[in-house]
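Thread: quick sanity check before group meeting

JM: Hey all, I'm pulling together slides for Thursday and realized we never actually wrote out the predicted structure for the chain we discussed last week. Dropping the sequence here so it's in one place. If anyone has concerns about the input, flag it before I start.
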Amino acid sequence: MMRKILPPLAVIFAALLWSADGFLRQELYSISSFLVVTLEHAFGALLFLPFLIKTWPEIKKLGQRGWISVLWISICGGILGTYFYTKALSYIDYIDLSVVVLLQKLQPIFAISLAAIILKEKLTQRFIGLALLAMLGAYLVTFGTTSIADWDDKTLIAALLATLAAFSWGSSTVLGKHALNRLPFTAVTALRLSLTAVCALIIFTVTSDGFGTLELTTHQWRNLVIIVMSTGAMALFIYYFGLKHMKASHATVYELTWPLSAVFLDWIIRGHMLGFAQIIGAILLLGSMILLTREETYG
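JM (edit): ok, ran it. Output follows.
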């Protein structure tokens, strides 16, 4: 029983950590997005360097398709997804809930479709029904009865950026599973962080004046370290453990914990009360995920 429950719990816990990420990044608004990505992944790469060294004999045996998967998750998941997400936050004054829900509502669509195409994962009618129910719950949790027609221009731009982030992260879930079929989750975590740090450093160096303009306050350095140890590298490590032992299509539904917990954090930190529709959405989301744990999740 524990073997069946532990992977979903790992993905859910990682999603809970990610839901706090937007609040931590608020203090980093004045820093280049690429610089934030570079620094947080460089710190994470150093943290997981022992795993990289230990699993290097297995990494050397990785074939061409395996390397394509690792490069995809490093660039799309590590750089582009994070960049689009961070950029989207800046368009709505770092009130991230409307962005998060679009991102999380679309990410499962990308991930489930690609899992069926690339990984040949079998999708039962029951699973598809539960996934749709969970996505409806995620929508209600964050939007309530608000219509997309009520969005202003900045929110629409943020939504477009969030959609790009959704594809980047949704596809990275699938390609991450592809890499995990060939390597231990510790190796995939270490490789992802290292390659993302190197690629981000190259992009940052080419597109800016380098580190000459690096002026972070003590508070910002502290937040970067906290991100690495919680919502960044550590959450990724926990997530890959869960993804290693379950189907990518199932993992992406459990990630819908993110908008639910983000709304609760918004309620606790900012005092934004949940409306009736949001409560209904939370019940749908939690109920569908509980029922999903009874599905065969291992892949």
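AS: nice. The chain has one domain: 10-292. The longest helix spans residues 64-91.
JM: adding both to the slides.
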